[in-house]
Design brief:
Helices cover 18% and strands 36% of the residues. By secondary structure, the chain is of the alpha+beta class. The longest helix has 15 residues.
Length: 417
Amino acid sequence: MDLLRLATAGSVDDGKSTLIGRLLYDSKSIFEDQLASIEATSASRGDEHTNLALLTDGLRAEREQGITIDVAHRYFATPHRKFIIADTPGHIQYTRNMVTGASTADLAIVLIDARKGILEQSRRHSFIANLLRIPHLVLAVNKMDLVDYDQDVFLEIKAEYSQFATRLEVPDLTFIPISALHGDNVVDRSANMDWYRGATLLHHLEEVHIASDRNLVDVRFPVQYVVRPQSTEHHDYRGYAGTVSGGVLKPGDEVMVLPSGFTTRIASIDTADGPVEEAFAPMSVTITLEDDLDVSRGDMICRPHNQPAVSQDVEAMVCWMSEQTRLTAGSKLAIKHTTRWARAMVKEFRYRLDINSLHRQEDADSLSLNEIGRVRLRTTQPLLADDYHRNRSTGSFILVDETTNVTVGAGMIVSAE
């Protein structure tokens, strides 16, 4: 079975945590003791229904305020597919949490409260999902039970969002009317919305095609660890472990090691379960080469005629995550790109992005907490990078404050020179 990573997004109190709880409950993916616990908690709080949001909102502050603060991950499976769900916060002050939670998602579910329609935060999260190049977007119009399952309400929201989506680059957009509280169109079809002929949410999640989303053309293998067993049996073994970030690798393929530029061929590909005849993203493998080259952590294995950019100058969109500091021209930070560390300086601050209007604020000169902008970076070592829209793994990086070792920014490379 393949794995689908999905993230929820949307405004405050649109029902993101309740939807995930409903998915887990109706698909029989929670244990009886978990259900008993949230039933008891719901009763003690005086809730009218069993509060399924408590399955993901586990922090005391979340339960006291009835909101999501930190990203919660839940795992479940059906006979068709395995899932990892990231429940992300809706509050504007937790935008950074939404970015980190959705950064690896294949699909994003944007929830809309049918009573309120499309709000500012709905647009904000949709734009961030687009910025993160999440290829599949589901607009789930929730709380249809509170508008008497009115088809016209759903169609109005669908028309308004479709117009907004024309300003984004969304390759796959699906609209589903649901009620997370009562389970309408979540796992089972709704008898209250017989006018809706589309798939239920779970059926769509099971059937959405994600195999073609991965880049199987550009071979990218960042070396994470050099495997040198010290036993006498394997004294001459030298393997390079890591996660395939793109393309397909096979024994006998000609490859190049960057940044040295030496070429060789793949001798074998090993996994925890034994040798394989091919490897592709996102498999974790160990590669051995026919020639004894100098390859170390941070290097990259690619095709001789299909290489990433080798550059110390990159342009990137950065989401700033620090409450204590601001990102300005001249800021010096550590940068981690794939498996390579370097130091970086902001050579130029281009603009800050107004996420609500999508306008560029070119008179701005800094980024503060949760703000997104475009900057030009110079690094002490060349990065082996692709544009983010081409490869999300080799096109992204994090920025780290060297004095505190705290991650202060997440970046998406627009271009590497």
